[in-house]
């Protein structure tokens, strides 16, 4: 039977500036998205009845109902292209990434599901139309469709791919305290900060990337730390590990990333942080590069 499988890589906000709060309540951002080779996984197979199974270490942390972004992606795709996939599907989500963690795992899952459906479709699915469906599911979903490094602005609709982009290595640490994005934005004191500085040198190596990141920030870190103080402590500890070029919170938290030039440095830092933060989720791996 026909089937398709897609990875849903973790999305890392290497920098995030909040530039405007719109009259409709949405916030406009400028952010540098990178994606890690750490991921959830979507598998869909033609079946006699619709099925949705969630497994993996964080499978119990997400809803199995229609509120799940994967099922919302299926519904949105079928609404746009009702005859594209005329069969029932058995969908399995392997949830390896923590939820409500600032690494876009739900958005990545939805994007992976859209890619699976497009792959199973018997009609051609245009990228722009799929992008519109993705944006209707959430601000991060369009960028997660490609899962390639990009400058993202507006409410997620403007995506400019970055080439070159180095294969740096990262450590991700989450204290396993879910954090609500609306709660973080609700505590944001300034909503009209400056945008990201221009990238004046090609990001051909990790040190050049880190030097540029030092001129940026994550505007959501301060309000997130008010909610989860451990974020500041983890960031400080990670910054002190050997080889760490920069440590910062991703997205609205509570995941913190550390950037390294080599996989050995990242692995050793992860081991060191596991000893200091044994109750946290800690993983290391390379970023997805772009030539």
Keywords:
single chain, 291 residues, alpha+beta, Ribosomal Protein S5, domain 2, Alpha-Beta Plaits, 2 domains, 6-stranded mixed sheet, 4-stranded antiparallel sheet, 10 strands, 28% strand
Helix content: 25-40%
CATH class placement of the largest domain: Alpha Beta
Proportion of beta-strand residues? 25-35%
Shape: globular
CATH topology of the largest domain: Ribosomal Protein S5, domain 2
Mean pLDDT: 95
Secondary structure category: alpha+beta
Question: What is the distance, rounded to the nearest whole angstrom, between the alpha carbons of the first and last residues?
Answer: 36 Å
Instruction: Report the CATH architecture of the largest domain.
Output: 2-Layer Sandwich
Number of domains: 2
Main sheet properties = 6 strands, mixed
- Helices, by number, come to 9
Report Rg. 19 Å
Run of helices and strands = EEEHEHHHEEEHHHHEEHE
Number of DSSP E strands: 10
Task: Please characterize this protein's 3D structure.
Helices cover 31% and strands 28% of the residues. The protein has 291 residues and is α+β, with helices and mostly antiparallel strands. The strands form 2 sheets. Strands 1, 2, 3, 4, 5 and 6 form a 6-stranded mixed β-sheet that branches. A 4-stranded antiparallel β-sheet has the order 8-9-7-10, with helices on both faces. Helix 1 runs parallel beside helix 2. The chain starts with a strand and ends in a 5-residue tail after the last strand. The model has no long low-confidence stretch (mean pLDDT 95).
Layout of secondary structure:
Elements: E1 3-21, E2 27-47, E3 51-55, H1 69-80, E4 88-94, H2 105-120, H3 127-137, H4 141-146, E5 150-154, E6 158-161, E7 169-174, H5 181-186, H6 206-213, H7 221-227, H8 230-239, E8 246-249, E9 256-260, H9 263-276, E10 281-286
């Amino acid at each position: 039977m026909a089937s398709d499988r897609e990875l849903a890589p973790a999305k890392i906000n290497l920098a995030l500036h909040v530039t405007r709060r719109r009259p409709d309540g949405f916030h406009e951002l400028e952010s540098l998205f990178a994606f890690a080779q750490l991921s959830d996984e979507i598998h869909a197979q033609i079946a006699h009845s619709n099925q949705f199974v969630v497994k993996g270490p964080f499978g119990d942390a997400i809803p199995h109902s229609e509120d799940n972004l994967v099922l919302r992606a299926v519904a949105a795709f079928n609404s746009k292209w009702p005859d594209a996939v005329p069969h029932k599907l058995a969908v399995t989500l392997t949830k390896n990434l923590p939820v409500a963690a600032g690494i876009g795992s739900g958005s990545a899952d939805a994007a992976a599901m859209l890619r699976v459906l497009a792959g199973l479709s018997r009609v051609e699915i245009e990228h722009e139309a799929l992008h519109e469906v993705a944006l209707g599911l959430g601000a991060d979903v369009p960028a997660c469709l490609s899962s390639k490094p990009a400058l993202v602005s507006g409410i997620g609709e403007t995506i400019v791919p970055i080439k070159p982009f180095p294969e740096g290595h990262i450590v991700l640490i989450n204290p396993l305290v879910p954090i609500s994005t609306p709660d973080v934005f609700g505590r944001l004191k300034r909503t009209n900060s400056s945008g990201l500085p221009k990238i004046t040198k090609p990001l051909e190596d990790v040190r050049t990337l880190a030097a540029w990141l030092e001129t940026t920030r994550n505007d959501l870190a301060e309000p997130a730390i008010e909610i989860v103080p451990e974020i500041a402590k983890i960031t400080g500890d990670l910054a002190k590990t050997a080889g760490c070029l920069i440590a910062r919170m991703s997205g609205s938290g509570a995941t913190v990333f550390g950037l390294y030039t080599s996989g050995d440095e990242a692995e050793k830092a992860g081991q060191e942080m596991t000893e200091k933060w044994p109750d946290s989720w800690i993983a290391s791996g390379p970023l997805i590069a772009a030539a």
